[in-house]
Amino acid sequence: MIPMLDLKRELADIGDEISKAVDKSIGETKFILGPNVKEFEKNAADYLGCKYTAGVASGTDALHLALKASGIKENDEVITTPFTFIATAEAIVYCGAKPVFVDIDPETMNINPELLEKSITEKTKAIIPVHLFGNPCRMDEIKQIADKYNLTVIEDCAQSFGATYNNKQTGTLGDIGCFSFFPSKNLGCYGDGGLISTNDENIYNNIMALRNHGSYEKYYHDRIGFNSRLDDIQAAILNVKIKYIDKANEDRILAAEKYKDIIQDSVSYQKVENKSKHVYHQFTIRSEKRNQIMSELQKHEIASAIYYPVPLHLQKSFASLNHKEGDLPVSEKLAQEVLSLPVNPYLEDEEITIISEIVKLASGK
């Protein structure tokens, strides 16, 4: 069996160091906003190259709080991609705002900047570009449009910790960055966790209150907030793992390049712009024979996954937006063709070769 991600191999590598960090956190008994959270927030800010970070309970909460801190409210509109995990759009709805879906570039699989302007209205207040699978969006163009219309840019970096664009980290290219530390992520904890990054002191201060029941000082509440705090044990794990993130990402990149070398033009791949460093949270191929490839991999006990089988504009949860098939044709086509193969820092060359040969055979090319 070859899984999508093998955390047992990770534990065999750095498990002792993680266990010591967890034991130390437990021994200090400062579980809520404790010393490891503060240490991780500093480590993350230093790594990303931004002024402020705030640990929160999840990537979903990071998006929600970022939107709230930006002043997004009922009847506002926020532009994003339909080809993403539902949390991106859920966070918009949590604020009472309307998600406005813009189709994607068929090659990068990210939101297409060339389609943005025609979706901007007087109600539009923000854009959420998603660096899908770890591949940075065309942020120069997105920022230029956002600046023209005075829109906030909130980066969804749930899958892109360590990815860069123009040698700058994702999460520092817009006004706010939102990260997820779900266990499968490139930088993942062993539970739920998230982070918000920004260089804006006012936004940071708003988020610090919002994550902690609207409070800056214990038992004094300036506003209605939320309970969304990264816990100290998860932060302890992240403080260990962030030391290895560059090596882990480089190993993912090497695995992706090995796949491409063997599979070659049997399928197509996510395009990486010259300005971008893709960190391959997922290695995703496209093929009209996607289902045959997936079936053949299953026969050999090799995992694969479809991210995402139904674009958000066609999900039942967004039926009120009155979208229909054909509205966003590129996203709809990719949903029928994409397949993500196992990719992680511990994937062995022999495993990559086996998977690649099966993909080539099943694709018929």
Automatic annotation (TrEMBL):
The record ties this protein, via CDD domains, to: AHBA_syn
Active-site residues annotated for this sequence: 185
Kindly state which keywords UniProt assigns to this record, in alphabetical order. Pyridoxal phosphate
Record's Pfam families?
DegT_DnrJ_EryC1
InterPro entries with a match to the protein in the record:
DegT/StrS_aminotransferase, PyrdxlP-dep_Trfase, PyrdxlP-dep_Trfase_major, PyrdxlP-dep_Trfase_small
Q: Does the keyword Glycosyltransferase apply?
A: no
Q: GO MF annotations for this entry?
A: pyridoxal phosphate binding; transaminase activity
The record's Gene Ontology biological-process terms are:
polysaccharide biosynthetic process
Highest taxon above the source species:
Bacteria
Keyword rRNA processing assigned to the entry: answer is no
Q: Which SUPFAM superfamilies match?
A: PLP-dependent transferases
In this UniProt entry, the residues modified to N6-(pyridoxal phosphate)lysine are: 185
- Record's Gene3D superfamilies? Aspartate Aminotransferase, domain 1, Type I PLP-dependent aspartate aminotransferase-like (Major domain)
Q: Which family does it belong to?
A: Belongs to the DegT/DnrJ/EryC1 family.
**What name does this protein carry?**
Transcriptional regulator
Protein source organism? Flexistipes sinusarabici
